[in-house]
Design brief:
This protein has one domain: tRNA-splicing ligase RtcB. Helix content is about 30%, strand content about 25%. It contains ten helices and 19 strands. Strands 12-6-10-9-19-17-16 form a seven-stranded antiparallel beta sheet. It has a six-stranded mixed beta sheet with strand order 1-2-3-4-14-13, sandwiched between helices. A two-stranded antiparallel ribbon has the order 5-11. Helix 3 crosses helix 7 and helix 5 packs antiparallel against helix 7. It starts with 8 loop residues before the first strand and ends with a strand.
């Protein structure tokens, strides 16, 4: 086990302790209460790890790592199953980019559906494909997944759980979504051009997550199990519900990874049409930050839930984004076992979306995103850089978890 210098605060609880990498970073009381609630559960193994971007979430905090023996909490994994990041370094340099980047931004927006219309639950939604193009249908019906394809594997799941058939699936493959999802063109410390994007499993992942959260709640009611928060309802390992959830969540994580790959290929095509001598370097990263996986920690095979956290094993590359106007980082993991080989998934929200809308104006947002070709309207005030924690403080708090490989600053940002 690695002997890392202690850089965390250990918080005693009535259950397992909390180890928090939050030096110099504010943590809201509601988030600490959620961490304590999780730590009180009898099946949580060793301790709960809180990353420096930790903040309130549904049931469990975003920015936490939860190791479980014999159970999984579906709400801790969340409804954006497999949400994560992908980044690719290109052969372009800043000198190749035009002074006005709005044309590049428009090209990306035209190539990839983003945002949503209304509830986003029908084929007229602007954030979905009306008629999925060939590259999307190929990824859906031809790309191998276990013993079949994404399409055939989902059919197996929905045959047993017909309510999941109502969710958007192929029409959301290769689409961005809304909220904090984004596509960015960035420059690194050597002026190399990168493409970085953030998205997950879209409508089908949301339906799978919501469906199994409700299943877990019904199981708690069935067995008269009282919890400090109803959203901490769990599925015991070995139960039919647990096995079905593991099958469905693994599929959603694969869908999310494929979603990012399809979008990245489409952005690369846009760049290839706008720039001569365009190429892609070998450095590419595709990592989840909302997911569950079985790993060995402290001598036990445990179910590790990373809710807003990235795996950071020894030498593993990851991505920690800032905000629409702040730096992002390509990092290499140090394999710190105290954090279950994890690091933060971003800067983390400093306030709720409603609070950001109340506190900031469009002029504030325009100033904060100066020099970035992006939306500068009231519809993205909740995503303005001031709504997030200071990424520099977040990175300093986890210096024993990761080392910085590249520092990126966006010049184009596409949001739904």
């Amino acid at each position: 086990m690695n002997d890392h210098m202690k850089n965390y605060t250990e918080i005693p609880t009535d259950g397992v302790p909390i180890r928090a990498w939050t030096h110099g970073v504010p943590v809201e009381e509601a988030a600490e209460l959620q961490l304590r609630n999780v730590a009180s559960l009898p099946f949580v193994h060793s301790h709960v790890a809180a990353m420096p971007d930790v903040h309130w979430g549904k049931g469990a905090t975003v920015g936490s790592v939860i190791p479980c023996l014999g159970a999984i909490i579906p709400a801790a994994v969340g409804v954006d199953i497999g949400c994560g990041m992908m980044a690719v370094r290109t052969t372009l340099k800043s000198r190749h980019l035009p002074d006005n980047l709005e044309g590049l931004r428009a090209g990306i927006e035209q190539a990839i559906p983003h945002g949503r219309t209304g509830r986003g639950d029908n084929r007229n939604d602007r954030g979905a494909w009306g008629n999925p193009p060939d590259d999307v249908t190929s990824a859906w019906g031809d790309k191998p997944y276990r013993d079949g394809t994404l399409r055939s594997a989902l059919e197996t799941i929905t045959d047993k759980h017909p309510k999941l058939k109502k969710a958007n699936s192929v029409v959301h493959l290769g689409t961005l979504g809304a909220g904090n999802h984004f596509i960015e063109v960035c420059l690194d410390e050597s002026d190399a051009v990168w493409v970085m994007l953030h998205s997950g499993s879209r409508g089908i992942g949301n339906r799978i997550g919501s469906y199994f959260i409700e299943m877990a709640k019904k199981e708690m009611a069935r067995w008269f199990i009282n919890l400090p928060d109803a959203d901490l309802a769990y599925l015991p390992e070995g139960s039919e519900g647990f096995n079905d959830y593991i099958q469905a969540v693994a599929w959603a994580q694969a869908f999310a990874q494929t979603n990012r790959e399809v979008m990245m290929h489409r952005v690369m095509t846009v760049l290839a049409t706008q720039f001569t001598d365009f190429g892609v370097s070998e450095l590419a990263i595709n990592c989840h930050h909302n997911y569950v996986a079985q790993e060995k920690h402290y001598g036990k095979q445990v179910w590790i839930t990373r809710k807003g956290a990235v795996r950071a094993g020894v030498g593993e590359l990851g991505i920690i984004p800032g905000s629409m106007g702040a730096r992002s980082y390509i990092v290499r993991g140090k394999g710190n076992w105290q954090s279950f080989c994890s690091c933060s998934h971003g800067a983390g929200r400093a306030m709720s979306r409603n609070e950001a809308k109340r506190r900031f104006t469009v002029d504030d947002h325009v100033h904060a995103t100066e020099g970035v070709a992006c939306r500068k309207d009231a519809g993205v005030i909740d995503e303005t850089p001031m709504a997030y924690k200071d990424i520099d403080a977040v990175m300093a708090a986890q210096s024993d978890l990761v080392e910085i490989v590249h520092t990126l600053k966006q010049v184009v940002c596409v949001k739904g």
